[in-house]
Every structure is written in C-alpha cells, then in structure tokens.
Fold each of these.
Amino acid sequence: MPREPFLPMLRELARCYQAFEAYSGAHVRSLGLTPSQFDIVATLGNTPGLSFKELGEKTLITKGTLTGVVDRLEAQRLVRRSASPEDGRSMIVSLTAAGTRLFETVFPAHLDHLRLALGGLEAARMQRCEAELRRLRDAFEAAPAAEPSPALPGRKASRRKQ
C-alpha cells in the first residue's frame, strides 16, 4: 500500500500537541489546577461570564466534561452560575472574586512558563506557523463528513438485539 504524503505531517502535528500538553499540563498542575480547570479559568478571565455553549466553543473541553469541571470549580467557589438575562433557560458561568484573583495569578505565571519555550521564536515565524495551522484546520472543516464504514473482511458486523 502506498504511503500517504500527509502522514508525516499528521504524526508531527500529534507529537507537537502531545509535547505542548506535557509541558503546559505539568506547569498547570504545579499551580494546583487540572488543565481543564485552567482552561475554564483562563477563558472566563477578563469576561463578564459566558454561557455553557460559548464556554464549550472557546475551550478544548468536551460538553460532557465541561459540566463536571464547572461543578468542581463551583464547589471551590471559583465560579458561579447565574441565569442569562437574555434567555432564562441558559446559564452564565462567571468567575467569583476568588476566581478572578486566581486568574490574575495563574494566567500571567503560565504565560511566563510558555514564554520559556516559545519566546525565542521570531514573530514572523510564529505568524507563518499560525497561518499554516489555520489552513490545515480549514481543510479538515471543509472536508466531507465520513461515511459509515462497512464491516472489514473477516469480521462480523455487531448485531444488536431489539
């Protein structure tokens, strides 16, 4: 089978993300937060609050995980939920005073940590990299949705009893 020319790029993209997660996550945990908690606190910082939908779109957290992370941050009195003034069915998540103080401490500390790894890169190089990553994301978003695959030869399709 011929080797696809995009496989080395995808492998490097995955390795880059794993390296970032390891580097960033270790520092975030040293600050007393999980990466998901940090993501929410950082996203809510300097905002009046966001709906769950907005928070899900702006973070890297799946919908199923988001509620649990917000629950734990709320139990620590770092965030609060309130009814949306525009839509009573929607909840707004915002930082409490303690959450704002935490954001004002951990966010600059984490930027300093990231600067240790990325600060030596030239601005123009980072802009080119960002543009290439955006093009790659656009290619995935423009691609047609996958069709369900037929069962592989030699394997039986799973059967559900109804």
Note: The chain has one domain: 7-123.
Amino acid sequence: MSELAKPSRRKLMLYAPLAVAGVAGLGFWAMLRGLGDGSFNPRGVPSALLGKNPPEFSLPGLDGVDLPPLASPDLRLFRKPVLVNFWASWCAPCIVEHPQLMALHRQGVPILGINYKDREPDARSFLARHGNPFARLGVDVPGRIAIDWGVYGVPETYVLDRHGVIRWRWAGPITPEVMTASVVPLLRSLENA
C-alpha cells in the first residue's frame, strides 16, 4: 500500500469525537425508546447493597437539634424495620416527601436521617419549619457515607430489616403512592420476618 493510500493518524483522530458522539446518540435514542414503551425505568438503578449490611460508619449529630448522632450499630438498635433517609434542606423533592416521613414517624416507624452536604443552620431551619421525623440524625457534610451507601442523589431512602440488612432502596421522594404501594406493605411484611 502506498503512503498516500494509508489513512494518517491525524485523520483518524479527527473522526474519534464523531464516533463517540454517534455512540452516545444511539444510547440516548435507546433510552428514549425505552421510556416510550416502558422498558426503561430511570429509578431502576440497582443497589449493590440490597440483601447486605450497610458499610460501617459513624456520623456526628446536628448541633442545636436534640437528637443522638448516628452510627452503624444504631441501625439494629430498634429491633424492628427502620428507614434510613438521606436528605438536605436545599433539596426540593425532600420537601415533597417530608409529609410521608412525618406520617411514618407518627405511626412509630423509626426513621434514621442522614443530612447530606448541607449547612447546619439550614438543616435546623428545615426541621423547625417542616417537623422532625427522625429518631437519630447524622450529618454527612463531605458526602463520604452517601458514597459508601451508593447514593445517587437526595432524597434517597433505604428500608432495613430488624437485623440491619438492606431490603429496599428508593431513589427520589417517597410520594403518597410510593408509601401505599411499597413502603407500608414492606414494613408490615418485615415486622414478622
């Protein structure tokens, strides 16, 4: 093959971004098609922790709030199913789910809160304004614990059985529909397990 017929390395490098854009476009098209026919669930990102104990951790409490801090042994402290809720005052969906957390709190469900990458005065103000559903509350300012749990964003909620094993994960706000369809039946089934 002559030197003129060989594609130059420089020309190949010019086509590389075009190839990457084409592959990304195909992936986006497949996702949109899946959303249209119902085969793609954007909340369906699996958790590697389902069926396992969460990683060991210890978090400081929120200053100015009369709640104990949160550490991994506390997940089994209540000897019944618990919710672990990652939330923040700057999170609009957290406001949407808060009435459901308050309802679960009134029903006696232990909810353990992890305040994620928040300013403490803002977190205190949020709880003063909307109510405090938490039995214990830890502060994860750097977000390290959230990374260890595999949190994608806030709010995110986990249901743990009485042995501290993660049985369910929900990315996004717990709406009244999610409460009725998933959370309440799961908590009932885990009460006797």
Note: The CA atoms of residues 50 and 153 lie 17 Å apart.
